[in-house]
Each structure stands twice: as structure tokens, then as C-alpha cells.
Write a structure and sequence with these properties.
two-stranded antiparallel sheet; about 850 residues; 18 strands
């Protein structure tokens, strides 16, 4: 007898009240005899009968069928096992249903073999014999489905009864779920229940074909996702170049260049339900899906392990680069290789997101992919991030479970509730899962032990693009990607988020005071993808700046801060993992960077304002200072000692910078660009051989006496610390020509450099006094140079205040003075702050020269 086609794509069938309609795919035929589901002696698969020649009897019988199933004349018992269903904090269907149901419909049929609890050869009827056992080969010890590489791996057909590592089934798919998720294709009106007036469950919105049918197995008759929604066990792929198609109703890989419009005959099966381009979304143009960028190919070994065609391009692997619908046990969100097990293929372990990324973001010897072939784009499009996080010499954030001191990683996106600034209740359709949003307590706000670092804390892999700006070239993400990469490090430097940060969530501080002593009053949560918008304003609803991502952890948004110093409620250094040890530079606690980087409009340029947080006696010519991470400084200068790209005369005071201009892999002196450029180390604060993940050295021992110090990645060493520069440039720290003691030439200063650049003069004087090694930036400038209460990031031992646990205006006699976090070997005492270029001997209380401003060597 020929096999029944209840699962066939060619016709409509009925299984347990299910209606299915689909169109035959060009390369697929219903030919079970030539698939591994032919379990007879003639079957081509590893599991087959010893003698039995009938093909259909293993699943179907015309008489004596299992009466618990209305169709398709099922010839097997059904497992009585209690299953552990898939679960996820970002699975809105689970939240709406309360919990996923036990498997039903076609899923129970599939699991009667694939859960490993029943012998494959056991059938209800064979040749009028009841409860017959067919002798089989290739099975497990008890005749069950074999384990393959192990039931805990993603390389087995024995799924077991723990289905947490398998795509969710018995999941009700309706308009409520689609709206709550935000990235699911909507259900047509009137088709959410079966039967519906003349329609078929599974028909999507206008233009979509019913390629992935739902089953009316919910208690209220609504359509659910079951195994047969994706798989038809009778299908055979006739095109060998497409590889193992896993009996899928729709193509397993991306067969055409993705666009923002769904292509039923060319898009990967995942996109039949998951619409990553809703609202002008970016998946079709992302660095993981765009053929212009993701043009690398899988190695022969990696392709074979994943059952991919040899040399499959990354863009064709599409969702399967990172996900596997039946993945390794322990992985969250169906992540491929997403556990901390070190075996190959991966065995069961604890969730480890980074291992998924390390498949490609490692060195070429370990990578699953080869170099790209597009000559327009850099050859190495998957930079080695793993080395930064795994090098024993590096300081880094705790990314592994062991480093975090937990069994399961804390990072877990999505939740259902209201958390201060975020409403993620399901009924509000706020779609927190798609934006990778986490509640504050998971960041560490109520529990510092929850502080962590994962790749998807900073990157949304569905939205990252290879453009210098997150919105692409002038808002156009449909054109060619930037060959120069994804960090805007050109003249006219800005802090606009780069393409690798597109679509991630972050926070923008709201301030009630300009004082350095006050913290933000609240935060605005920035989330979502810009779609086709070219809006890069800070006021946009989505992330437009790198610092917005950093501040969700490095401010009191991510932890409770009582604003007490020197020690308060802030996290301690290296509380877990391989970070900077407590006590380096005298620091034991993190600082609140939202407090430090504030850039008040009223303090830009040389404006004077009494609300900087400085003592009442030190407000003349004084104002807040900051590195221009959040906004520009407004400071201007005809000449400056900055390096490319910061030194354009028209740009000084108007440009902005990234956190990752100072924090990231160690760089060569005189530059913050990663070693090797776009083909070398990556931008970003992943890891560094220097403390605090800095690009150069910064500690009291090294100081500023060496060109390798951090400051001289951007500031010219010759203009700040070299006693004998070939050219001396004008500096804001220069002597007022009307100050006679200052303008009188000194023996070590025959050119009267003090009138031009007192930094160079101090370097000369310190060298002459034999104290060159003690010439350090922190003698005069704040030790944590994010932002400060005084102009020029200058410390003032005449005014040490709440930032050191003292009353405002406290004079400190001890020199050098150290007190965390902001004073590290400080000498400077300022009597009166001056405008740029107007410093006098009286400014620091000196009588004969500027020694008091520079202080002892």
C-alpha cells in the first residue's frame, strides 16, 4: 500500500481537528521511502527494521488505530511521560498562557518516537497481530531512538522529555501573542479559532501564504505551534546542494538576498513566523544577515558538524548561525553552542551566551567560518572578541559563569511587570523581549551580586549593522556598508552610536542640578530600532549614543548609590571575576559616571557659574569640566595639544567622544585606534592588559612621565610632558604676560615657555630638579577624569569637599594628598581660578614663579 499523505504539502488533511494547507516547494517532494522516516529494511537511515518491508506500518494502520487520536490512523502508543516544556523570560506566550501546555496534537505523535521512552519497533497492529514488536537495528539498548552524539547535545534525534532546549510547542499563536512579542507575524482577523468562517488557520496577514500551519489544539480552539507546523515527515529534498532540510515545510536556509518584504519561497523558515523587519526593522540589512557583510563561509568541519552544506555562506545560515531549534541542553533561547561545557560537540552545561558569539568572533584557527570574499569590505568581518575576554593577562568584565560566581548567568532579557522606568507588563504590548530589556534588579540595583557582562548587554545581534553611524549613511541602511568599519574616528569626531550598537537599549540621565555633588534625578529608558529613520538626536526614543548603553550599568540606574564618599553603597572593584583589583590607584569602589559626565549648558566654554559643586570661595572664573562623552565642552583654542582627529581648529570644543575612545584593547602610543585597524583588535571595552580596561597605562607609579600613558593617546606628549619639544604650542595653562614674576625668564626657560605652555615648563623644571619620574597628570588633575567640579579637571587642595567625605571648602595641608576616588598624589592648591592663558603667580599663592601651581617635583 502507498503511504498516506496526512502530513503532505500537496493536499489538505485532518489530524485531531487540524486543517493544513500548503504549497509544494519547488525542490521538495513527498517521498517517504527515500527519507530516514522509512524505518523498513529498505530505509536509507541509520535506524531500520531487520526484516520488515512495509513502510507505513511504523506510524499508520487502516484498522485498529490508536483511538486517542482522530487521525491519521495512528499505529503507535503515545508516551505517558510528563514533559518539562520550554521556558523563557522573554516568551510572551508562556506569560499569557501561564505556562506552556503539555505537548498535544502532532507533537504527541512525533514524541512517541523522539522522546526516547518507547521502543521504535513497537506498533499496535501488524498483519492482524496486536501489540507487535518489529525487530530493529540502530536503536538504543531498549529499542528507543538512539542518542546520537548524546541526548544532552544539539546533535541527537532523541529529544528526551526535557524540552527546554527545543523550540516551544503547544504554544498558542494569536493576535495577543503577536502584539505582545512585537516581532511575530500577525494572524488574519477571523482566523484565530478553528473552524473560522471559510478560512484556514495559519493564513497570515494579506500577502502571506499558509506555509507554517497552526493546529487547533488549544483548549479554546485557537491555533497552536506544534511539531508538524514546521516539519512534514514525508518530505524529501531533491536538491543535494541544499543539504539536510530536516523535513521542513519551508527552506531550512536563506535562499535569496533578504529584504524587508517577506519572500515565502526564499526566506528561511524562521521568518515565516518571526518578523525581524517589523516597523522598518533592520534584520535584512544586519551584519549577520546582509550578503554584503556576512559573506564568510563555514569551514568544512564546522559545516559538517552543523549538518550545513559545505562552504555555506553566513548570510544563508541566517538564524541558524546563532540558534538551533533543537539545541544543546542548558542553552537559553535555543542558542547554538550556548553553554559553558567545553566538550565537542557541546554537552549539557549552564547557559553561556558568549560561547555562541565565540563560534565566529575568535581567531581564524578556531573560527567556524573563513574570511570574507567581498573586496569592498574588510576581509575579517568577525573580529576576534574572544581573545579580549579570555587572555590571562587582561582585565575585563566578568563574562563567564565562573567569573560571575554563579551557576547560571544572571543576564536574562524580558520580564512581566513594571520596574521603575520600564513597563513590561504583557497586556501593555511593550515588547520588552525584542528590545533585550532587563529589569534593574538583574543589573544589580537591589542585589550587587547580579552585576554581570554578556555580549547581548551591549549588542542586539538582530540589529547590528556595519556602518559608522547606527542609522547608516545619512539614515540609509539599504546601501553599501562602510568599508572603514563601525567607529566614527574621523575629524569632526562625534559620540553618535556606531552600527554595532544599533537597536540596543540604554538610559539617558535627567538632571535637576548642575552640581558635581548631585546625582541624576531620574532616567529615560531608550529602546527600540530606528527603522528607516535617520534621527540621531539624543531626544530620540531609541539609543543614539554609546554612553546610553554604558550608563545602564555604570550609574545609579544599575545599582543603588547613596552618594556618600569616599565609600558608599556603590559596587566594589573586582567583587567577582578578573577585573581590576581593589586598591589599584587607591580605588575600592566604582564611581557614578552619570554624575561625572554631566555636561551642563551653563558651564560650557569659559562661562562662570556658582553651581558647579566647588566651594563658595572658589567659584570665580570656575565651572564644571568633563570629557565630552555626553556633550561637547564648548572650550575653544587657537592652538591645542590634541592629536588626530581631535585637533582640528574648527572642531575643538564642538566635538564629542565615546567611552570606547579610552576603554578597550591596549593600543599603541599616540592613538586610540585598535592595533591592526579594522582587521585587528575590535573597538569596545571587552578587555585590556591595563587596569580599568584602559587603552593605556594610568596609575600613580607610571604617571604621565611616559608616552605610553593613557592621556597621550589623545593629548600630545610633547605639549604636556616633554621638557624639550621641537615646537611649543599655545596652551590654556599659560602665564599672564602682565604678571612680572611669571614673565621673567628663568635659567631653565630661556624662551620663557611659561608665557606659552606651563605644562612644558613644569616638565623642564621637574627634570632640572631630578624629579622627572614624579611628573604625573594626577598631581594637578582629578584621578578619575570623567568629569569634575573645577575647570580643566583641576584638583584644589584648598577646596576638598563631599567628594572626599569632607565639608565643602576644606583645606588639606598634606601634600601629596590621596583620597579615593578623585585624589591620587595631588599637590595643586588654587587660590583663584583664571581664564585660559591668564594664570598668574598669585593664582596658586606663589610669590616668585609658578612653582606653587606645579608644586614640588
Amino acid at each position: 500500500m502507498s503511504e498516506p499523505k496526512f502530513f503532505s504539502l500537496a493536499l489538505v488533511g485532518a489530524v485531531a481537528g487540524v486543517v493544513w494547507v500548503s504549497a509544494i516547494q519547488a525542490a521538495k517532494v513527498s517521498d517517504i521511502r527515500n527519507t530516514p522516516h522509512n524505518l523498513s529494511v529498505s530505509g536509507p537511515g541509520p535506524v531500520r527494521a531487520v526484516n520488515e518491508t512495509e513502510v507505513c506500518v511504523f506510524c499508520h494502520t487502516p484498522h485498529g488505530a490508536n483511538t486517542s487520536m482522530a487521525a491519521p490512523l495512528w499505529n503507535r502508543k503515545l508516551s505517558t511521560a510528563t514533559y518539562t516544556p520550554y521556558t523563557s523570560t522573554s516568551l510572551d506566550a508562556e506569560s499569557i498562557q501561564g505556562a506552556l501546555s503539555q505537548p498535544g496534537g502532532s507533537s504527541k505523535l512525533c514524541l512517541s518516537c523522539h522522546d526516547g521512552t518507547l521502543a521504535i519497533g513497537n506498533v499496535n497492529v501488524l498483519g492482524r497481530q496486536l501489540n507487535w514488536t518489529i525487530s530493529m537495528s540502530g536503536t538504543g539498548l531498549s529499542g528507543e531512538m538512539p542518542a546520537g552524539d548524546g541526548i544532552d547535545t544539539g546533535f541527537t534525534r532523541n529529544l528526551g522529555i526535557d524540552l527546554r532546549n527545543d523550540h516551544p510547542i503547544s504554544l498558542t499563536f494569536d493576535s495577543t501573542v503577536a502584539a505582545a512579542d512585537g516581532e511575530l507575524r500577525p494572524i488574519d482577523p477571523g482566523t484565530q479559532k478553528w473552524p473560522a468562517s471559510g478560512s484556514v488557520i495559519g493564513v497570515r496577514s494579506s500577502g502571506y501564504k499558509p506555509l507554517v500551519p497552526l493546529e487547533a489544539t488549544a483548549a479554546d480552539g485557537k491555533g497552536q505551534i506544534q511539531c508538524a507546523s514546521c516539519h512534514d515527515p514525508h518530505l524529501r529534498e531533491t536538491d543535494p546542494t541544499k543539504g539536510n532540510q530536516k523535513f521542513l515545510r519551508v527552506q531550512r536556509f536563506q535562499e535569496v538576498t533578504p529584504t524587508s518584504t517577506y519572500d515565502a519561497t526564499g526566506d528561511i523558515i524562521c521568518l515565516s513566523c518571526h518578523d525581524k523587519n517589523i516597523g522598518g526593522g533592520v534584520w535584512a540589512y544586519s551584519a549577520h544577515g546582509n550578503p554584503q557583510v556576512a559573506n564568510e563561509a563555514y569551514t568544512t568541519t564546522a559545516a559538517a558538524q552543523r549538518e550545513f552544506p559545505d562552504a555555506l555562506p553566513v548570510w544563508k545560515a541566517s538564524c541558524l548561525n546563532c540558534h538551533d531549534t533543537h539545541t544543546v541542553q542548558g542553552a537559553r533561547r535555543l542558542l547554538r553552542e550556548g553553554t559553558d561545557s567545553l566538550s565537542t560537540p557541546k554537552g549539557a552545561g549552564n547557559p553561556a551566551i558568549e560561547e555562541t558569539c565565540y563560534q565566529c568572533h575568535t581567531n581564524l584557527a578556531e573560527s567556524a567560518i573563513t574570511d570574507g570574499t567581498n573586496p569592498v569590505i574588510s576581509a575579517n568581518q568577525a573580529p576576534d572578541i574572544k581573545i579580549d575576554f579570555t587572555s590571562p593577562a587582561n582585565k575585563r568584565m566578568p563574562i563567564t559563569n565562573m567569573e560571575q560566581g554563579v551557576a547560571e548567568e544572571v543576564h536574562n532579557i524580558g520580564f512581566n511587570g513594571i520596574d521603575n522606568y520600564i513597563d513590561c507588563t504583557v497586556l501593555t504590548n511593550t515588547q520588552c523581549g525584542k528590545d533585550f530589556v532587563e529589569p534593574r534588579d538583574r543589573l544589580g540595583y537591589n542585589n550587587l551580586a547580579n552585576r554581570h557582562a554578556e555580549c547581548s548587554d551591549c549588542h542586539n545581534p538582530h540589529r547590528v549593522v556595519k556602518f559608522r553611524s547606527f542609522v547608516g549613511n545619512s539614515g540609509d541602511i539599504t546601501g553599501a556598508a562602510d568599508a572603514a568599519g563601525t567607529h566614527n574616528h574621523a575629524t569632526g569626531h562625534t559620540n553618535i552610536a556606531s552600527g554595532v550598537l544599533r537597536g540596543m537599549w540604554g538610559v539617558e540621565p535627567v538632571y535637576g542640578s548642575a552640581s558635581f555633588q548631585d546625582m541624576p534625578t531620574s532616567y529615560l529608558v531608550k529602546r527600540g530600532d530606528p527603522g528607516l529613520s535617520g534621527n540621531t538626536l539624543v531626544s530620540a526614543s531609541y539609543v543614539t549614543r554609546e554612553y546610553q548603553i554604558c550608563l545602564k550599568c555604570h550609574s545609579d540606574y544599575g545599582y543603588y548609590d547613596n552618594n556618600l564618599y569616599p565609600a558608599g553603597s556603590r559596587p566594589y572593584l573586582s567583587f567577582t571575576g578578573p577585573g581590576t583589583l581593589s586598591g589599584v590607584n587607591g580605588l575600592t569602589q566604582y564611581t557614578n559616571q552619570a554624575k561625572e559626565f554631566q555636561a551642563p549648558l551653563t558651564h560650557k566654554g569659559e562661562m562662570t557659574n556658582s553651581d558647579s559643586g566647588a566651594g563658595a570661595s572658589y567659584t570665580t572664573n570656575n565651572h564644571r569640566s568633563w570629557h565630552p562623552v555626553m556633550d561637547n565642552t564648548g572650550r575653544t583654542s587657537a592652538m591645542n595639544g590634541l592629536m588626530v582627529p581631535w585637533n582640528g581648529v574648527a572642531d575643538v570644543g564642538t566635538q564629542t567622544m565615546y567611552c570606547s575612545d579610552c576603554h578597550g584593547s591596549t593600543t599603541l602610543p599616540d592613538t586610540v585606534e585598535p592595533i591592526g585597524g579594522e582587521d585587528g583588535n575590535a573597538w569596545g571595552p571587552h578587555g585590556s592588559s591595563n587596569d580599568f580596561i584602559l587603552k593605556g597605562q594610568w596609575n600613580q607609579g607610571v604617571g604621565a612621565g611616559t608616552p605610553d600613558a593613557l592621556c597621550f593617546r589623545c593629548h600630545e606628549y610633547d605639549q604636556y610632558a616633554n621638557p624639550s619639544p621641537a615646537v611649543v604650542k599655545q596652551s590654556g595653562f599659560a602665564c599672564d604676560l602682565g604678571d612680572i614674576p611669571c614673565s621673567t625668564p628663568k635659567a631653565e626657560d630661556s624662551r620663557n615657555i611659561r608665557q606659552v605652555n606651563l605644562h612644558v615648563y613644569e616638565a623642564q623644571r621637574t627634570q632640572a630638579l631630578g624629579g622627572g619620574g614624579n611628573y604625573r597628570c594626577s598631581k594637578c588633575h582629578v584621578a578619575v577624569p570623567h568629569g569634575w567640579k573645577n575647570k580643566g579637571l583641576l584638583v584644589n587642595l584648598n577646596d576638598v569637599g563631599p567628594e572626599a567625605g569632607l565639608a565643602a571648602g576644606t583645606a588639606v595641608a598634606i601634600q601629596p594628598y590621596s583620597q579615593e576616588p578623585y585624589y591620587m598624589g595631588a599637590w595643586l592648591k588654587v587660590t583663584t581660578f583664571q581664564s585660559s592663558g591668564k594664570w598668574t603667580t598669585a593664582s596658586c599663592g606663589a610669590l616668585a614663579d609658578m612653582t606653587a601651581c606645579g608644586n614640588a617635583p
